Amino acid sequence: MEIKAKQIAELLCGKIEGDENIIVSDMSRIEEGKPGTITFLANPKYETYIYNTKASIVIVGLEFKAEKNLPKQLTLIKVENPYKSLAKLLSYYDSYKNNKTGIETPSFISKSAKVGKNVYIGAFSYIGESVIIEDNVKIYPNTYIGDNVNIGKNSCLNAGIKIYANTIIGNSCTIHSGAVIGADGFGFVPNSENNYQKVPQIGNVIIEDYVEVGANTTIDRATIGSTVIKKGVKLDNLIQIAHNVEVGENTVIAAQTGISGSVKIGKDVMIGGQVGMAGHLKIADKVKIAAQSGIGNNIINENEIVQGSPSFNIGDYKRSYVLFRKLPKLKQDIDSIKKAVKELKNE
After folding, report:
1. Residues known to be catalytic
2. How far, rounded to the nearest angstrom, does the alpha carbon of residue 128 sit from its chain's CA centroid?
3. Based on the domain organization, do 260 and 294 belong to the same domain?
4. 8 and 112 assigned to the same domain
């Protein structure tokens, strides 16, 4: 895609310093800038690179003032927030790049399925009975959509996704490759022979609007009722969400986190990587959970920050950490004191 500086400035509501007609066709990091690319400067520690970059356009903040001469070929676009402007530009580029439509062959679409306008369905996809695919949905190759699934407008399902029956996906959702939505919850009951009898999982998964699900993340359907991922939730790669979990609005969860069944997570929660949660817990709104924490009890106070396994308040954790880091030295000191006391007794 080729685009002029003037068009970019209009998109970002920015001010141009330089050639408004210069054309770029790609993006680059500022330290690796190449002719015909656009880059950005948001962190002051990277400012030195702008004086040598070969990029054609750099997005900078309104307050930026060059301390020495800039490259002659360089055009600046000054914006209020370079990082947010970059995100907006990337979204524009992504929507342009992925603006596919049509149904590729071979693929299977049930006669009872309803497919909206401007939809793309990639080759080797399977669309089950009574599926509803709304306008502008993108379904990339090798994707399985089970019976009675609903997919809302402008959602994107990348290649190799498995969506089990009865799942509901909202508008403007993005699901990345390898995700499995709606598989059986982990439900088994021990019997008299000490075997485990499977409990049928007859519920579904509901994913509300503007949710992003990372690659190889799994969300199990409910035993009865629904596993619910609410509006605006962002899930990283390799996350396991068990049956009957509810994740509140705008919560973000980092990779390799495992959430056991029937956990209720509030809104605006931030969960670091490799966190583990026991079942049937409640996590209050705006809680922050540090990476590798183990959550075994309810967190009832909003805005609380916890760390550790088992987790507790982060202030107490840091004070405790100072102490247990010193345990080897403290043991040496105790051993020295015991030795000195023993020698005094023997005198």
Report:
1. 243
2. 28
3. yes
4. no
DSSP classification of residue 301: S
Q: What CATH number corresponds to the domain at position 20? A: 3.40.1390.10
Assigned token pair, 328:
């080897």
pLDDT digits (tens, 9 = 90+) for 227-267: 999 999 999 999 999 999 999 999 999 999 999 999 999 99
Q: Are residues 165 and 41 in the same domain?
A: no
Distance CA 331, CA 316 (A): 22
For 20-33, what is each residue's pLDDT tens digit?
999 999 999 999 99
Same domain? For 42 and 149 the reply is: no
We report the CATH number of the domain holding residue 278 as: 2.160.10.10
Under 8 Å CB-to-CB from 65, ≥6 apart: which residues? none
* Nearest 10 degrees: Cα torsion 28, 29, 30, 34: -30
CB 125 within 8 A of CB 107: yes
Q: What is the CA radius of gyration of the chain?
A: 27
Token pair belonging to 81: 């927030």
Which is it for strands 276-277 and 294-295: parallel, antiparallel or unpaired? parallel
The answer, yes or no, to whether residue 293 has pLDDT greater than 90, is yes
